[in-house]
């Protein structure tokens, strides 16, 4: 029987070439990481095609492997459409087996409808054009493809109640957005929990947080603010993020109570009651 071949992405080819050149140089991931000034976990992500090195890292890789600028030049052809602080996260979530996300004020990007995303972009781009908005929406909502498959990744979504109450894009846009989230939860595509206002202070009230687990490498955590983000793979920091997520989740409503609250909020928006 003919063996099925799976196509590799350009980033996976980049990573495979890096692994081959590192092996030929008789360096471990840890030894290469020491020369690049990064963790062996990050080298592992590079080689798996989950992340790309920054230009300075690529130059250090070339020096360590004596590849005469090969990896730095190739990197220029793999530039992401995402902002610098989010590009690596967009790649990682494509490979994650488990994503646990917390949203403080906005619906997480991977769950946003087109109209919800457009309203967000319009809010902070005062001189936008229709074409620019359309392009931004396409780039963001393309991330939803990771949810098309029936199995991976497993997705947990924890929402502060503020996400349900802030009317983004008008009542109908908001109602459609919340109905979509509820529908995905009811279909078993994501696990949904809400932290109600009545909880008061909770462990994640300072930041958006995304946790990602992978089949063959260490987990990562990502926090984000205005025009900035921080992707962490340091085990101690990632562990602290997991602890904070677990604490916040323990204060949340059950799945059924959360679904009921999201459905109720959608109907309130639809009927102009908020």
Order of SSEs, N→C?
Answer: HHHHHHEHHEHHEEEEHH
- As for the number of domains, it is 2
> In what order do the strands lie side by side in the largest sheet?
3-2-1-4-5-6
CATH architecture of the largest domain: 2-Layer Sandwich
Number of helices: 12
Domain HTH cro/C1-type: 18-70
Pfam families: DUF5753, HTH_31
InterPro entries: Cro/C1-type_HTH, DUF5753, Lambda_DNA-bd_dom_sf
Protein name: Transcriptional regulator
Model description:
With 274 residues, the protein is an alpha/beta fold. The protein folds into two domains: 10-78, lambda repressor-like DNA-binding domains (434 Repressor (Amino-terminal Domain)), CATH 1.10.260; 84-270, Endonuclease, Chain A (2-Layer Sandwich). It is 49% helix and 13% strand. It is built from twelve helices and six strands. It has helices at 10-24, 29-36, 40-48, 55-65, 70-75, 84-93, 114-124, 130-141, 161-165, 171-186, 235-250, 255-270; strands at residues 98-103, 154-160, 191-195, 208-213, 220-225, 228-232. Strands 3-2-1-4-5-6 form a six-stranded mixed beta sheet, sandwiched between helices. A hairpin with a 6-residue loop joins strand 4 and strand 5. Helix 2 (29-36) crosses helix 3 (40-48) and helix 10 runs antiparallel to helix 12 (255-270). The protein is globular, with a radius of gyration of 21 Å. The model is unreliable at 1-5 (pLDDT under 50).
